[in-house]
Structure formats: structure tokens, C-alpha cells
Hints:
Blueprint: H1 2-32, H2 38-58, E1 68-76, E2 79-82, H3 84-96, E3 99-114, E4 117-130, E5 136-150, E6 153-165
Parallel strand pairs: 1-6
Antiparallel strand pairs: 1-2, 3-4, 4-5, 5-6
Pfam family, one: DUF4440
Signal peptide: 1-21
Keywords: Signal
Amino acid sequence: MKNFLCLxxxxxxxxxxxxxxxxxxxxxxxxxxxxxxxxxxxxxxKKVMKTYKETLESxxxxxxxxxxxxxxxxxxxxxxxxTYRDYIANHIGPELGHFESFTFSxxxxxxxxxxxxxxxxxxxxxxxxxxEDGRKVERKATATSILxxxxxxxxxxxxxxxxxxxx
Length: 167
């Protein structure tokens, strides 16, 4: 019985010694948790996507590279275009030179956050007027993009768009 009481006393002392340390560790862990303002983060993601859209509308993509990570991936109309730099060099960049105007209407965006990632779905109609003959192209389109928050900035890591004729 004496051995049992000694063992029980030792266990009680050991557990009481661990409690303050355990509470201290929990407090330290709680202090390290980051409080995220979801509304601000969603607005920041929307701003990146709006800036990208406005860049295309301006027909000058010079400042748009900063919106994408270096090894991003662009998919359009069922084709893997490569990185954003590849897409600009080999697809949309040359096309923009043939446009008189490129505008978006009926634009809607939804954002889902799963920090440090954001997932966007956009729908819109785009209108292109060609320089050569003034011909107008109107398409209904959707796009999905994945962004990642890196060094306190949202960057596009992957984007996929498709379109069809407007009926």
C-alpha cells in the first residue's frame, strides 16, 4: 500500500508540473496563429483579377507579368499555352497587336479562399474590334484561376479560360 501511495503521489506531482508547461505551449501556439481578414483577402484576390482584365483591355501587357508566378500555367480553349510569358509571346501578345479594342462586359467573379490559396471563377462577355477591317468578335467566356499568397502578395499560378459564340 505504501508503494502504491508513493506512485500515486509521484504521478500527481508529475501531472501538475506538466500542466503549466502545457498551458504555456498552448498559449505560445495560439499567439503564432495568424488572424486572417477574409473580406480583405477576397478583395485583394479580386483586385489581382481585375488588374489582369484591365491590362488586357488596355492592349498593353507590359505590367502584367508581376501578376503571375514565373512558372505559371495558362490553358485556353483546350490547349496548354505554357507559362504566362509563353502565352504572351506566342498567343495573346501577337493577337493584341491586331485589336482596335478589347473590352469585357457582364463581368462576374466568385472567390473561394483556402489559405494560402484562392480559387476564382469568372464569367463575362468579351468584345474585340479588329484593326484591319473593323470586324467585331463577341464571345461568352468563363475562366478559373488558382492564386497563391506569396510574400504578402497574391499571384496567379494557373488560369484556364474558354469561350463560345454569343447566341
